[in-house]
Specification:
Number of helices: 11
Protein name: Type IV pilus assembly protein PilQ
Distance between the termini: 82 Å
Family: Belongs to the bacterial secretin family.
Organism: Sinomicrobium oceani
Keywords: Signal
Largest sheet: 7 strands, antiparallel
Number of strands: 34
Radius of gyration: 60 Å
Strand content: 35-45%
Pfam family, one: Secretin
Oligomer: single chain
Length: 752
């Protein structure tokens, strides 16, 4: 069917073309005739008939026309090109005008009229202007779909058509203006269509960040040094583009941010840098030929040029070895010798430095790729701090089972004294101080310092991985809270990136502690007692609300005398020294003590609170001098011992905001009892240690430290003191019940 249509179209053109040409020729002859008729009004020779019949044979056309001009007085100018035309005709009874029209039609002539002058010359039909080929492109803006039917259409014309229809901006280099394009697509996504258009026509396509589509030639012939074709272009400047899927392929996605899509398979690093650098038009300085940098296999969909260089050179860098270089030197008092030098490698691996938009390439030991930079911490200290220094000089002493022993030190400030160490409770020494005060006894604090470092100030540098500080010389400036770093630029950038991740505000934890101590007592005391004293006793005491009454003999006799009226009962009288005591008392107590200290500390550091009382005991040292007649010397020293309320808390904030608390609470008091007059006083203590995890601003309740006491005692007459009711007349009883409870409430709040 398609073939029949093509044949029909061909036949139609073959028939229509001659007909159209004939029609144009008739129209031209009619125009000449009209001009001659108009001119014949002023020049009657055009309407004259030939004087005689003319029979010509092989006569030049130019000569024939000149003869007609002379005979009939017609101004005729003959073109020299008519000299080569000969005519063979027999004219009879024709006018000059008809003769001229006939000659123009027969020999393809034309007449230019200038006034009454006829200029006859060969007729040349006007060149047919070819119809401009329309670019067949359709665009659907609703779905961003495009259809194309291109057959050797010039690139410039196609792109203008696409821009007009779609509104997308397509940019290309000037040498691609007349590049023929071939492509047939139907309803394809615009981005996908542009990508396939570039691929099938040996073009490179990239899309910039601001939405421009950039096209360039995939294969460009090398040019000479002066731009003349055929010259030999230096190898490092020749662009060797490869199609997708080859071992060396890249696309420039954004020239502003230098974003790339790369796919390299065992490709020389020198070729990668030179080719991409040529397209990005970057300035480069090479201290050592890049041919020694080796090969690399790399694939990434979206990576910047700087990141690509870092990853390629990292792959050729030897790994940092060992950790035996982590022994920093001793520090001066002003901290001017603090620092750390990373593991030193041979320095022959390649690296780069970017400075003022110029890329410097060379080995790590070359000065052109090294730099010195100050890296300042914005949110934390260069010194990895230990626990508060106020707790490191000396510790308070209290408690019964708190780590630490009760040390009875004799003559701690003199010589020749003895030291007594009483670990009566089986406790072990637990002290993190660099020195012990002579009167240190019971320690309530325990914190871990960085004992593995000779200087706490170097702790932050020493915890960094070896790969981060490799080939770097790092010094510490405490006054500016900065690191002074010297080394290859790429290593410094890696160090800065890692430090930036660590440079975050250290959380501050506000710890609210509430100590509640409740003491409840109940005492009941009853009974009647009488006896004979040394001397007469007067009646005295209280009756209400507490009854504690002592009756003298006179009062008792009056009471006895009151019974004389009851028949024959005669009790008699008591002696003057007689007394009787009546007790009936009940007491209740409810005491509540509340303390609300607040502590703040950095994350991972211990906070301490201690409120205590100090008393002293005597340590006597007696020394004997001489052997024949020994003499004694006695020295008495007063040593301190503490009782206190101490709270020690160490918070640790995790990444999800939860807080781990290491809590140690101790409360101790002096009991007032001493085993000897000069012995240390007795201590009663309550303490607990716990590790818990809570959320921010959660309330933690720690309790259960209770002290209970029950006392039920009495005395009286045997047997009678056991009989109900009357036992109150023949006995004295005391019942006492007490209860003490300590509760600790802790509320941590994280502050950033």
């Amino acid at each position: 069917m398609l073939m029949i249509k093509k044949i029909t179209l061909y036949l139609f053109l073959c028939i229509a073309t001659p007909l159209l040409s004939q029609e144009n020729n008739n129209r031209r002859m009619e125009s000449i005739r009209n001009h001659l008729e108009a001119l014949s009004v002023d020049n009657p020779g055009l309407t004259e008939s030939f004087k005689t019949d003319i029979n010509v044979n092989n006569v030049p056309l130019s000569g024939f026309l000149m003869a007609v001009s002379r005979v009939h007085k017609v101004n005729i100018n003959v073109s020299p090109e008519l000299q080569n035309i000969t005519i063979v005709n027999n004219f009879s009874d024709v006018t000059v005008a008809d003769l001229l029209v006939f000659l123009c039609k027969e020999y393809g002539l034309d007449i230019d009229f200038t006034g009454n002058i006829l200029s006859i010359h060969k007729y040349f039909p006007p060149e047919k202007i070819p119809e401009e080929k329309q670019v067949r492109v359709q665009y659907n803006p609703a779905e961003d779909l495009i259809s194309m039917d291109l057959d050797n259409d010039p690139l410039g014309k196609v792109f203008r058509k696409i821009i007009d229809l779609s509104g997308h901006n397509l940019l290309y280099s000037s040498e691609l203006e007349n590049t023929p394009l071939r492509m047939y697509l139907k309803d394809v996504d615009f981005d996908k269509a542009m990508e396939n258009l570039a691929t099938t026509n040996n073009l490179i396509y990239t899309k910039s960040r601001d939405g421009f589509y950039l096209f360039d030639a995939a294969y460009i012939a090398a040019a000479g040094p002066e731009g003349n074709p055929g010259g030999n272009m230096p190898q490092q400047n020749r662009r060797m583009r490869a199609p997708r899927g080859a071992s060396f392929y890249y696309e420039i996605r954004d020239t502003t941010s230098m974003t790339l899509k790369v796919d390299f398979n065992d490709t020389p690093i020198s070729s990668i840098i030179n080719e991409i650098g040529y397209d990005l038009k970057i300035n480069m300085y090479t201290a050592t030929p890049l041919d020694r940098a080796g090969n690399v296999t790399f694939k990434a969909e979206n990576i910047t040029f700087d990141e690509l260089l870092e990853k390629m050179f990292e792959s050729s860098q030897p790994p940092a070895t060992g950790s035996n270089n982590r022994n920093p030197g001793n520090n001066d008092s002003n901290g001017t010798n603090n620092g750390r030098q990373g593991n030193t490698s041979p320095g022959n691996h390649f690296t780069f430095k970017k400075e003022r938009n110029i890329y410097y390439f060379g080995t790590a030991n070359q000065l052109s790729v090294r730099r010195v930079e100050i890296v300042q911490l914005m949110h934390r200290s260069v010194e990895l701090l230990g626990d508060p220094s106020g707790n490191s000089g000396s510790t308070r002493s209290s408690g019964r089972t708190v780590p630490g022993g009760i040390n009875y030190l004799g003559g701690g400030y003199g010589s020749g004294q003895n030291m007594y160490n009483n670990n009566a409770y089986g406790t072990n020494s637990y002290n993190n101080n660099n020195y012990n005060r002579p009167n240190t006894t019971l320690s309530t604090s325990h914190s871990d310092n960085f004992s593995s470092y000779n200087s706490k100030a170097e702790a932050l540098v020493n915890i960094l991985p070896d790969e981060i500080i490799a080939d770097l010389d790092i010094k510490i400036d405490f006054e500016l809270n900065s690191f002074l770093v010297s080394g290859p630029a790429a290593n410094i950038n890696r160090f800065k990136t890692f430090i930036k991740q660590m440079d975050k505000p250290v959380p501050v934890i506000l710890i609210e502690v509430m100590l509640l101590e409740v003491s409840r007592t109940a005492t009941v005391e009853t009974g009647i007692s009488w006896g004979i004293g040394d001397e007469p006793v007067k009646t005295r005491g209280g009756i209400f609300p507490n009854t504690n009454l002592t009756l003298g003999a006179e009062t008792v006799n009056r009471v006895i005398g009151g019974f004389d009226g009851f028949g024959s009962l005669n009790v008699g009288k008591v002696v003057p020294e007689f007394f009787a005591t009546i007790k009936a008392m009940e007491a209740n107590g409810n005491v509540k003590i509340r303390s609300t200290p607040k502590l703040s500390t950095l994350n991972g550091h211990r906070a301490h609170l201690s409120i205590g009382e100090t008393t002293y005991y005597v340590v006597t040292n007696q020394n004997y001098y001489g052997s024949q007649i020994p003499q004694s010397s006695e020295i008495r020293n007063y040593m301190p011992i503490d009782a206190e309320l101490a709270v020690s808390i160490k918070p640790l904030v995790s990444g999800d905001g939860q807080i781990t608390l290491d809590i140690n609470v101790i409360q101790s008091d002096f009991s007032g009892d001493r085993i000897e007059e000069d012995a240390p006083p007795g201590l009663t203590s309550r303490e607990f240690s716990s590790i818990i995890r809570v959320q921010d601003q959660d309330l933690v309740v720690l309790g259960g430290l209770e002290e209970k006491m029950k006392n039920d005692s009495g005395n009286g007459v045997p047997l009678l003191s056991r009989i109900p009711i009357i036992k109150w007349l023949f006995s004295s009883r005391k019942r006492e019940d007490s209860k003490k409870k300590l509760t600790v409430l802790i509320k941590p709040t994280v502050i950033y």
